[in-house]
Amino acid sequence: MAALRSMSRLLMNRNLSTTIKRGYAEDMSFTFASGNQVFYDGQNVRQVDVPSFSGSFGILPKHVPTLAVLKPGVVSVYENEGNVKKIFVSSGTVTINDDSSVQILAEEAHPVENIDAAAARDLLSKAQSQFSSAANEQAKAEAEIAIEVSEALVKAAE
């Protein structure tokens, strides 16, 4: 029984030191760009939250290396100074490297504060109309993508 308690303490201490190493103590180099703008170019940030088809997830320094596809939604960047920047992405990829560097490449990206909510709702309405009048499967698929992006855009603008 004493050996079990010793092992338990050893594992607890090991987990604590791993948790401390994975916290905010270290920075991660962050690059975020789209076809229309470079938002971050190697700056150090504390955390990034991304919308992914496998589920939204947060990225901290020392995150396990990952490659993921972004779904339409808001990327939240927690800067070292305490600011939080929210940027809408239509799609793209996120790469997390072993050296704690993170790259996001987005098809389109815009700061959330620049989104016009009325224009987003209008875009959603047009996409839904295109879906209703789609003549073939390709047109329906394209309209479904437009609906998905527009719905995320409306949600981001609210």
Which properties best describe this structure?
2 domains; Single alpha-helices involved in coiled-coils or other helix-helix interfaces; disordered N terminus; 3 helices; 158 residues; nine-stranded mixed beta sheet; alpha+beta; ATP Synthase, domain 1
Short description, anyone?
The protein is an alpha+beta fold. It has helices spanning 2-21, 117-132, 137-157; strands spanning 28-34, 38-50, 57-59, 66-70, 73-79, 84-89, 92-96, 102-106, 109-111. The model is unreliable at 1-25 (pLDDT under 50).
General description of the model:
With 158 residues, this protein is an alpha+beta fold. It has 2 domains: 25-113, Sandwich (ATP Synthase, domain 1); 116-157, Up-down Bundle (Single alpha-helices involved in coiled-coils or other helix-helix interfaces). The chain contains 3 helices and 9 strands; from the N terminus they run αβββββββββαα. The protein has helices spanning 2-21, 117-132, 137-157, and strands at 28-34, 38-50, 57-59, 66-70, 73-79, 84-89, 92-96, 102-106, 109-111. Strands 1, 2, 3, 4, 5, 6, 7, 8 and 9 form a 9-stranded mixed beta sheet that branches. Strand 2 (38-50) and strand 3 (57-59) form a beta hairpin. Helix 2 packs antiparallel against helix 3. The longest helix has 21 residues, at 137-157. The N and C termini lie far apart (57 Å). The model is unreliable at 1-25 (pLDDT under 50). InterPro entries: ATP_F1_dsu/esu_C_sf (IPR036794), ATP_synth_F1_dsu/esu (IPR001469), ATP_synth_F1_dsu/esu_N (IPR020546), ATPD_C_metazoa (IPR048937), ATPsynth_dsu/esu_N (IPR036771). Belongs to the ATPase epsilon chain family.
